[in-house]
Structure formats: C-alpha cells, structure tokens
Amino acid sequence: MLAGQHIILGVTGGIAVYKAVELCRLFVKAGAQVRVVMTEAAKQFVTPLTFQTISKQPVYDRLFIGSERFSVEHVGLAQEADLFVIAPATANTLGKIANGIADNLLTTTLMAAKCPILLAPAMNTNMYENPLQQANLKKLAAVGYHFVGPEQGELACGDQGRGRMSEPQAIFTAACQLLLADPFWQGKHVLVTAGPTREAIDPIRFLTNRSSGKMGYAVAEVAALLGADVTLISGPVDLMPPPGVKTIMVTTAQEMYDAVTAHFPAVDVVVKAAAVADYRPLRQCKQKIKKGNELNLVLVQNPDILAELGRQKQQQILVGFAAETDNLRENAEKKLIQKKLDLIVANNVLQEGAGFAADTNIIQIFYRNGEEKQFPKMTKHQVAREVLNAVKELKNNPVS
Ligand code: CTP
Prior knowledge:
Rossmann fold; eight-stranded mixed sheet; binds cytidine-5'-triphosphate
C-alpha cells in the first residue's frame, strides 16, 4: 500500500518508544522505505539496533558525522521524505519545534522538511495540560502540523488521563491518510460489500461459502485512506471493522439486499466483493432437525443484489467481482453485461495465491468496451488500490 513512499520516523525519549518499533514494522510491511532518526533520550529506551533491524536501514542519531549518502545529512534526509512522523513526540521536542529550536539531528531535519508532518504526542497528563504545552500545540497546528492523539488512559507513571501515545495502528492509519489522500475521492461515497452470507436451515445449521471478507475489507480500508466516505456492508467474518469506515453487519442475502438498496441512491461507487449465497432453504425449521431417514432440502433463489443495482443505476459506478473456477473471461463478461456493471474484477479461485482465505489475489479487470487488464499476484490491499484506480480512471474518462 505504501510502496515507493519515503517516511522519516522521528523517535524521541519516552516510554512509548516501544510502540514506535511496531509502528516502524507496520510502515515497512506496507512497503514504505523508513529512515529512523533517534534522539539521545530515545536511545535510553530502545537501542538503534532494534530500529535498524526492523527498518533494514541505518538509524540516524548524530548531527555531526559524515555520510556517504547525504552531503548534508539533515537536508538530504528531509528532501527525500514524503512524510515525517514523530512518535513518540515528547513535551520537550514539541516545545523545541514550536519555538524554532533545532539542536539535534531530529529537530534540524524536521526544520528542513517540506513534506507533511505528523506528530504523536506522549507525555504525562499534567505536562499535556500545561498552558505552555497547549500553546505550543496550538502554534504547531496553526502552521499545518498534523496530530494523532494523545489518548486517554493509564500512563506509565500510574496516573489516569490524557497523554498516552496513540496505538501504532491508529498512527499508521493517520499516516496513510496523509500519504494517500486523493482529491478525487474527497466527498465521494463508496459502498462496499464483503464476506459471505449465511442462510439458516434450522437454529443450528446454515448454508454459506468460503469467503473470508478480506478482499472487501481491503477495498473499504483503502477507499477510506484515499479520502472517500465509505460504508461497508458485511456478512459474518472474522475481521476487525476497518478504521474510519461505517460498517453494517448483516447475516442473510435478504438482509444484505435490504441494506445495500437502502444506501444505493446516495452513493457514487459500489464495489460488490461479497460472495452472496445464491440459494436459501425454502423453509427454516424452528427446531433442530433430527437425524432420521433421507433429508431433502428445498432451496429457492435469493435476490441478485448487483443485478437489481444494475436496474436502478443512475450516475453510480458499479463494480462486480467474479470468483470463478473455469471459463474466467466468458463468465466474467456475461456478468458484466447482464448486471450492467462498469467493470468486473475476476479471479480464478483455484489458482495458488488467489483463493478466498489468502492475503493475495491474482485478478483480471474486464470493461464494458471489451478492454481487459491483467495483473500479477498482489496483496489484497494492492488489488484494492488497483480496483479503485480503475474506477477513478473510468470516472475521469467514461467509456460507452
Ligand atoms: N451478487 C449479488 N447477489 C447475488 C449473487 C451475486 O450481488 N445474489 C454479486 C456478487 O457480489 C458479485 C457478482 O454478483 O459481485 C458476481 O457474483 P458470483 O457469485 O460470481 O456470480 P453469480 O451471479 O451468483 O453467478 P454464478 O454463481 O452462477 O457464477
């Protein structure tokens, strides 16, 4: 998701440094190149070796050493960065920055930076509430510095109150929002469906399928990071709701149909990644079915949600998914036309790395004008990005 992005992670001296290690790992895992700059105080909590190992880059900690890579280290580092994050940002460092003091590599590099700056404060509540500290924070916000946290909770000193550094995942999300925000997606409402549906046979058993929901959740998460207003309608899955996404849980295809059609008039884009059960038992037994002789289940068809959206469609872009085991192109193109979709994302679930529970997918995108695009194996977050890029291209250059 962050491939090609250069992040400077500034680490100052507070107990929350241990959480900055996890933050560094999240950035690296998402594909970013991370350069860690530590203050002397930060090194009292965690050694540079830890960050060096996680970031796979040397750690920067001293102002006056030569470097093979950068002629003037702080300027070179700052020029390369797409985002500067300081986590934890102590009261001392925030005070220095707010007052234009640059007396170590971190504060000097920050002063030379022109990229967005994200600060994750961490300090004792009394320090946080100190009027001088509050004035510093206001000053920094006024010149465009971004903040995440601090949170309420138990502090290292045993006090309760505001001052805890935000969790690494929350800082990661805030950083992704700054890096990925795309004006195209601001104010756009995206509706995503994900996961399987469950169709009850009796109070104990149900019919369902192997969908994990990972693909739809990735689309919802990435769309929110790009700046869209996202509603996710999800069948039963074992996943956490993506940050910043309005998530509505449903169980059956009929419930998904009701929720999706209720939201449809107000949305700009629908991405239907859910694996909706095509059939449900005609009758749901009120009591547990006891074993005996032969059991015949009579199944009736569920409504086709996407086909209904195709019928109601006004200005919305409709994206379908087709998980197939054979005749990929033929099946995908048939669904594209029959359901009046703008594009369809097809994958062969029998291919290694493209199945339901996998974290990766191998997709092809088919368009109404007969065009198609093939992609290599990617993470589901990368796939989500490609699908949303395809929607953006289509909105900018509509095809008949
Ligand atoms: N879909 C839907 N409602 C249904 C069935 C499918 O909205 N009752 C949507 C899925 O979310 C997906 C697309 O239609 O975006 C294609 O789903 P898929 O299960 O591959 O195709 P079906 O139309 O159900 O056809 P078949 O099962 O025969 O392949």
